[in-house]
Amino acid sequence: MRTTFRSSLPLGALAMATALATIPAAAADKVKIGFVSTLSGPSSALGVDIRDGFLLAVKLNGGKLGALPAEVIVSDDQFKPDVAKQQFEKNVKRDKVDFMTGVVFSNIMLAALPEALDNNVIYISPNAAPSSIAGKDCNPLFFAVSWPNDAYHEAAGAYATQREVKSVYLLAPNYQAGKDSLAGFKRMFKGQIVGENYTKLGQLDYAAELAEIRAAKPQAMYIFLPGGMGINFIKQFVGAGLSKDIQLLLPGFSADQDVINPVGPAMSGLFNTAHWSPDFNNPANQQFVEAFQKEYKRLPTLYASQGYDAAQLINAAVRDVKGRIEDREAVRKALKAAKFDSVRGPFRFNTNQYPIQNYYVRTVGSDGKGGLVNKSFNQPILKDHGDAYVGECKMKP
Fold first, then answer.
1. By C-alpha distance, which of 265, 271, 242 is closest to 376?
2. Neighbours of 250 (CB within 10 A)
């Protein structure tokens, strides 16, 4: 495999790339992946984990995807839509990639995605999956291997209702995924919404919002603040003493290992919802978690699991078309069949090429070694769950 990186990436990733860079690059005998993600700045942990999960899957497959040598061209979108658009254009038009993947945030993906779709390049989303593409703007070249934007929040709303929570204050960033997230929560929650606030994407100081929350006096607080946003909010929420009177409910994004480690003991006992957990006991997940810890010396997050599954999906599709990746329709059908063992367990695509899968409640507890880790409840809070927008998608099955 020949993997191309920007020089600013961690040494571990560069070492992997060097180790895999042994197969000659022949135009007709390899699969090329353009991987664009947020790899610098406060939200970089998310992109780094997606990248590391993706590259781990390629490594475990012997540097190949579907028996073809794999070249993964990795670049940093710097959390900027215009930069992502330029990188997509480069990957598609100059590098002639076969697939694009990697983007973390919906606003960045929506800005860059046309560069792939307009040039007949399939995009495999390991994270961002906005409601518009699930519905009226669905596209046969777009596959979400993660979840619909609303789904974690629908599960959280269902869980809050199950727990008989009467009132909730909602907080999310003001961009597509933030709006989708709170729409999903409200769709399933039967209690009263006493406040709803959309903050600046990337915001790290929440003093004004915390004052509003204190005044609203909700029984519970629900946030969608991934990465550094969530880390800062939870620290400030606890520091302001609000956790004594207000129950904090979270989606998995705001209670994953990348948040648990920097926040520390304040995370203990918090509940969150996700489609994956490191303690899932299916063989694919056990192999993934063990290999990830060995390779990177840390527990994987759900972002890493999605990067890993994205690579395994491509691997299965290239395998099933016997390497004939120039046949886009055959590749698309193979992708839609999703004949791979997902780390999350049961998984299949809906007609809009968004997942149908289970969502679980997790709680943050002791790992028995002085640290904290997510532990899942056995029964899903939502089983075989699709999305609310599939009926608006006119794409043929």
1. 271
2. 26
What is the H or E stretch that residue 362 is in? strand 355-366
d(CA 303, CA 364): 17
Mean pLDDT of the chain: 92
Contact 120, 221 (CB under 8 A): no
For residues 81 and 247, what is the distance between their CA atoms, to the nearest angstrom? Answer: 35
How far CA 267 is from CA of 185, 237, 311, in Å, comes to: 21, 11, 31
Residue holding tokens 């056995």? 378
* CA 235/CA 231 separation, integer angstroms: 6
Distance between CA atoms of 328 and 321, rounded to whole angstroms? Answer: 10
pLDDT of residue 17: 40
Sign of CA dihedral 286, 316, 125, 38: positive
Residue 27 has pLDDT above 80, yes or no: no
Per-residue pLDDT tens over the stretch 286-315: 999 999 999 999 999 999 999 999 999 999
End-to-end CA distance of the chain: 34
Beta bridge mates, 107: none
> What CA–CA distance (Å, rounded) separates 56 from 1?
12
pLDDT tens digit string along 154-172?
A: 999 999 999 999 999 999 9
Q: Which residues of 369-391 are buried (b: 16+ CB within 10 A; e: fewer)?
A: eeebbbebeeebbbeebbbbbbe
Asked whether the CA dihedral 72, 312, 13, 68 is positive or negative, the reply is: negative
Q: What is the DSSP letter of 242?
A: G
Residue 311 · residue 59 · CB < 8 Å:
no
Tens digits of per-residue pLDDT, 326-383?
999 999 999 999 999 999 999 999 999 999 999 999 999 999 999 999 999 989 999 9
